[in-house]
Design a protein that fits this description.
The protein has helices spanning 2-13, 31-40, 107-120, 138-152, 163-166, 173-187; strands spanning 19-26, 68-75, 129-131, 158-160. By secondary structure, the chain is of the alpha+beta class. The longest helix has 15 residues, at 138-152. It is globular and about 50 Å long. It starts with a helix and ends in a 15-residue tail after the last helix.
Length: 202
């Protein structure tokens, strides 16, 4: 989903399209999908309650699926009176050679962060909020957080995760996170993580 949004933005930025609707929907609650994630060692077959998916929690035990969608309307004409957000940079990167496709310090994520900020002509210190992926897996969440810590250093902004309330939407996760990011930007309200103690700062 987030790749679709990034591609649509790139087409508009290149003058190939004037507007687009982009995003994704996902219904991963199938035996096939569960078997794939079990093979990866990422699925939690015995989730705890009331918060079965606990991103970054020290006792996280794996991901739990949800179903949903996220869609965005993009236009080349940014109107401050009606537009709710502006995309100023987009990048993606991959890693290979390991079963989960992750390095300990999230090297691919760090490359994507650097490229996106370079496009936007921004510095790490300009970022106020990270919408994290946080799928609830031990290695995945650790790799992601290490990437943020390495990349932002002392300028590490607040991080918010949504999967505790939605589950992992797989291909629709990034699209829904993009929509929720717009809501955070417009309301100034960031949801907490109820499975952490109130005083916890991760």
């Amino acid at each position: 989903g987030i790749q679709a949004i990034g591609t649509a933005w790139s087409l508009i930025n290149a003058g190939i399209a004037d507007r687009a609707v982009a995003g994704a929907g996902e219904a991963p609650l199938t035996k096939f999908t569960l078997a794939q994630f079990q093979e990866l060692g990422a699925y939690n077959p015995t989730p705890t309650v009331p918060f079965p998916l606990r991103s970054l929690h020290p006792e996280r035990t794996g991901t739990v699926f949800g179903e949903g969608a996220g869609m965005m309307y993009l236009s080349k004409d940014y109107d401050h009176s009606s537009s709710i957000a502006e995309i100023v940079g987009f990048a993606a990167a991959t890693e290979s050679g390991m079963k989960p496709g992750l390095s300990e310090n999230g090297d691919g994520l760090q490359r994507a962060l650097a490229q996106a900020l370079d496009q936007a002509d921004l510095k790490p210190s300009d970022i106020d909020l990270i919408i994290g992926h946080g799928s609830g897996t031990v290695k995945g969440d650790g790799s992601e957080f290490n990437a943020y810590s390495d990349f932002f250093g002392s300028d590490l902004p607040e991080i918010v995760y949504h999967k505790w309330s939605t589950g992992h939407l797989v291909g629709a996760s990034g699209a829904l996170s993009s929509v929720l990011a717009c809501l955070h930007l417009n309301t100034g309200i960031v949801s907490g993580h109820p499975y952490f103690p109130q005083e916890s700062n991760f």
